[in-house]
Amino acid sequence: MLWSDPENEPPKELRAMQAMLRRLGVLLALAMILAMIVTGLR
């Protein structure tokens, strides 16, 4: 590997996008669980 090679780290925008997608996935999972509980109570 040369000293001039770029760092093996994604750009700032990509990291922000990944964090947002991770949060969205967690929210979606919680919403699904809540929907299952609500439909199970009926």
UniProtKB/TrEMBL annotation:
It holds the Pfam family MmpB. Keywords: Membrane, Transmembrane, Transmembrane helix. The chain crosses the membrane at residues 20-41. It comes from the Bacteria. InterPro entries: MmpB-like. This is Morphogenic membrane protein MmpB. It comes from Streptomyces flavalbus.
